[in-house]
Design a protein that fits this description.
The chain has 371 residues and is an alpha/beta fold. Helices cover 37% and strands 25% of the residues.
Length: 371
C-alpha cells in the first residue's frame, strides 16, 4: 500500500465513499504524495511529451504566438501563459527561439509559467534562470487574474484533470464512487454527486447506451470557462489527445477512456498504486468548445498535431529544425525526431490542437490555413 493509499483508505473509513474525481485529484495532485507533486525525473519512466522529442515543437509554437501578437496589432505587452509548465522545458525552447529569431515579438513578450508543484518549480528555476533574472519570465501557481492581451496555452494538461465516472444503469445515469473493503479499493454505483453531470451530457445531446461507462470532465469545463473570463483579448491554444463528443461516447468506448500509465505501459489498474502512476482520460473537445463559448471564446479550428506543425514549418521548409554548425549526423537525427512529432504512427494523429479566440473576430492563423 502506497502512503497515499493509506491516507485515502482512512478518509473513506471515516467519511464514506468518495467520487472518482476526488480519488483522481488526490492521486495526481496531493501536495506531498501526488504523482505530479514529485520531481519530473520520475515521469520519464512512464511517458514523454512532444517537448521532450525535439526543440522544434517549441520553436514552431513560438512562431504561432508571434503571429498571434501580430493579429492583436502588436501590443507593447503580450502575456503568454503556459498552464502546467512543469520544469520549464517548453518555456525555455520558446523563449530562446523568440529571443534569437523573433526579436520584435520577444521585446513585447512576458511569459508566465504556471506550475503548482514545489518540486517542479525548483527545477524550473534552474532551467529558466536567465529569463527569470531578465524579467522575461515569471513563475506562478495560478493563471493571472487578468490578461489584457495574450495567449493561454497548455500541452497535455486537460487529460490529467479529474473526471467523474458514470454508468448508464437501468435507464439512468449513476456515478461510480470509490470505497475501501479490507484495504482494497472497490467501486460502488451511487446516485450522481451533482446535477452538473446530467447537464454535462444533456448540453452535448449525449445519451449513453445501457451498461456504458463514461467520464464527465467537469473540471476541464470549469477550467476553460475560468481562463476565458480572465482573458480580455487574445487566444487559447490547447494541445491534447481526445475527440469530439460524438466519437468519445460512441459504441467503441463502452468502458470509457480512462487509463493508468506506468513504465510506458497503459492499463486499467486505476487503484494499483495511488500517487505513483499517471491517470488520464481523453479530452472532450466538444465540451471545451461549448463551455468556452459560454464565456466568449470562439472556436477557430480543431486540427491534428500533424497538420498544425506542418502548416507552421513548411513556410521555411522546417529550417527551424537545425542550428548553425550542425553536422549531417545530427541533421538526420533531427529529421527523425520531427517524424515522431508529425507522423500518424508517432504523435501526429494522437494529439489534437484546439484554437480559440476572444475579441479578435478577424483572426487568421497560419496553423489553420488548410481548413
Amino acid at each position: 500500500m502506497t502512503p497515499l493509499a493509506a491516507l485515502l483508505a482512512e478518509r473513506i473509513r471515516r467519511f464514506g465513499p468518495i467520487t472518482f474525481a476526488e480519488y483522481m485529484r488526490e492521486c495526481l495532485y496531493h501536495p506531498v504524495h501526488g504523482y505530479y507533486s514529485q520531481p519530473e525525473s520520475a515521469r520519464f519512466t512512464d511517458y514523454y511529451t512532444s517537448p521532450d522529442v525535439h526543440p522544434i515543437f517549441g520553436r514552431l509554437l513560438a512562431r504561432q504566438f508571434a503571429e498571434m501578437w501580430e493579429q492583436l496589432d502588436r501590443p507593447s505587452e503580450f502575456l503568454l501563459v503556459e498552464a502546467a509548465a512543469g520544469v520549464g522545458r517548453l518555456a525555455k525552447h520558446i523563449l530562446e527561439f523568440a529571443q534569437t529569431k523573433l526579436p520584435d515579438f520577444y521585446a513585447a513578450l512576458r511569459y508566465v509559467a504556471v506550475e503548482r508543484s514545489p518540486a517542479r518549480c525548483d527545477q524550473m528555476a534552474e532551467q529558466l534562470a536567465r529569463f527569470l533574472q531578465e524579467g522575461k519570465c515569471r513563475p506562478s501557481i495560478e493563471i493571472p487574474a487578468l490578461i489584457p492581451a495574450g495567449c493561454i496555452f497548455s500541452n497535455e494538461l486537460l487529460d490529467a484533470l479529474p473526471v467523474h465516472r458514470v454508468r448508464q444503469q437501468e435507464g439512468r445515469l449513476q456515478e461510480i464512487f470509490v470505497a475501501n473493503d479490507g484495504g482494497t479499493f472497490v467501486e460502488l454505483l451511487m446516485p450522481l454527486s451533482t446535477c452538473a453531470i446530467s447537464e454535462y451530457f444533456a448540453a452535448q445531446h449525449i445519451t449513453l447506451e445501457e451498461g456504458q461507462q463514461a467520464e464527465a470532465g467537469l473540471e476541464a469545463c470549469d477550467w476553460i470557462g475560468e481562463i476565458a473570463r480572465r482573458l480580455e483579448r487574445g487566444f487559447v491554444l490547447t494541445i491534447d489527445y481526445g475527440h469530439e463528443a460524438a466519437d468519445l461516447f460512441d459504441s467503441h468506448h463502452m468502458a470509457g477512456t480512462l487509463l493508468a500509465y506506468a513504465k510506458h505501459q497503459a492499463s486499467e489498474s486505476f487503484y494499483a498504486a495511488p500517487g505513483e502512476q499517471d491517470l488520464t482520460a481523453h479530452v472532450n473537445f466538444t465540451a471545451l468548445r461549448l463551455w468556452g463559448q459560454r464565456r466568449g471564446l470562439e472556436t477557430l479550428g480543431l486540427i491534428h498535431q500533424t497538420a498544425f506543425l506542418l502548416a507552421l514549418g513548411q513556410g521555411n521548409q522546417f529550417a527551424d529544425l537545425y542550428y548553425d554548425g550542425m553536422d549531417e549526423t545530427d541533421r538526420v537525427r533531427a529529421r527523425l525526431q520531427l517524424k515522431t512529432l508529425i507522423f500518424p504512427e508517432g504523435m501526429g494523429e494522437r494529439f489534437q490542437v484546439l484554437l480559440q479566440q476572444k475579441s479578435v473576430p478577424l483572426a487568421k492563423l497560419t496553423a489553420l490555413c488548410a481548413l
